[in-house]
Specification:
2 domains; seven-stranded mixed β-sheet; five-stranded mixed β-sheet; 14 strands; globular; binds L-MYO-inositol-1-phosphate
Length: 322
């Protein structure tokens, strides 16, 4: 297997994220000027635009030119039938626009998500939200950082010393409506949402009454916000490896706990901590991430992360995404 220079790859990923960001903002201007349309993928809640496809092409060609022997898995080439398997080879996993609905509407939580997997483990992650100017980046073992127009200098993630999180009542959580709106899945989602947010004192059985909920429409940016510490938890079933690969590296480097399904989480909390991101978790389409939690002295509190994961999963009705 070819050896890789992760510092060089990170630098290159940041460079292409900026180029892709320019293509996304220019694409948006053209779209709004020309009142351009979009295509539906599996249903009316799953969209693709010309800008998704052009941005993926730009990123793919740049990677091909620089690293011709690397593998590539991209959302739009996958949708077009080029469904490469994840192997041990150095592999780029890209979502050219995560938050396509936001992109179409002009809601600014839109990003390019660039993940790089080596020996089956996500090791580089770069997320760039061009309308916000937020860049998140990480290399395995090298920590995670963020830059923004307000703070152009690199700031380590999490942005502040991790505070405690004694219970769900202090938690700002993110989950998404996703694109599967079938009756069965909606019933499980809404039951889960009710338990996570409902007031048990008013009769919501199992209600955890989380402090608040956000649905920003981008899995990658949800991961990034948990990494920075501005969200406490993010959970979603149904997104794909390209939505989460970069975010997983950034989150893990920021001290978050990243787990997959309920069964995986159950196993993880009784194994060595923090859990590694295996290929099964990366491609498993069930994701839960909890921010770095500190104890009263500010020391990392692994037990608190485990408690939050267990409480969260008690409230979840899990299903297998189609
Ligand atoms: C989106 C995800 C989001 C999910 C949407 C969609 P896209 O990705 O990031 O979390 O809820 O259904 O999959 O399609 O904008 O790249």
């Amino acid at each position: 297997m070819s050896t890789v220079n992760l510092d060089e790859i990170l630098e290159f990923a940041v460079e292409i994220a900026h180029q892709a960001g320019k293509a996304i903002t220019e694409g948006s201007e053209t779209r709004f000027k020309n009142a351009a349309g979009f295509d539906e993928k599996k249903n009316t809640a799953d969209l693709v635009t010309e800008t998704d496809q052009n941005t993926e092409k730009l990123v793919y060609e740049a990677i091909q030119k620089r690293y011709p022997d690397h593998q590539f898995i991209g959302e739009e080439s996958w949708a077009a039938g080029k469904q490469a398997k994840l192997t041990d080879a150095p592999t780029w996993i890209i979502d050219p626009i995560d938050g396509t609905t936001n992109f179409v509407k002009g809601f600014p939580f839109v990003c390019i998500s660039i993940g790089f997997v080596y020996k089956s483990e996500p090791v580089i992650g770069v997320i760039f939200a061009p309308f916000l100017g937020y860049l998140y980046a990480a290399k395995k073992g090298g920590g995670a950082y963020m830059t923004s127009p307000l703070h152009p200098e690199r700031r380590s993630l999490p942005l502040v010393q991790p505070p405690p999180l004694p219970s769900f009542k202090q938690a700002l959580i993110a989950f998404e409506w996703g694109s599967d709106r079938s009756k069965e899945v909606m019933a499980q989602k809404t039951r889960t949402f009710e338990r996570l947010t409902g007031d048990p004192a008013s009769g919501v059985e199992g209600g955890e009454m989380a402090l608040g909920v956000r649905s920003i429409g981008s899995a990658a940016l949800n991961f990034a916000h948990v990494a920075s510490g501005s969200l406490d938890v993010y959970w979603e079933i149904g997104c794909w490896a390209w939505d989460v690969c970069a975010g997983m590296v950034i989150a893990k480097e920021a001290g978050c706990a990243v787990v997959g399904s309920k069964a995986h989480a159950q196993n993880a909390v009784s194994s060595s901590w923090p859990p590694v991101v295996s290929p099964e978790v990366l491609t498993g389409r069930k994701y839960l991430v909890v921010r770095a939690i500190g104890d009263k002295e500010g020391k990392v509190d692994a037990d608190a992360q485990k408690r939050i994961i267990q409480t969260f999963y008690q409230a979840v009705d899990e299903w297998d995404p189609k």
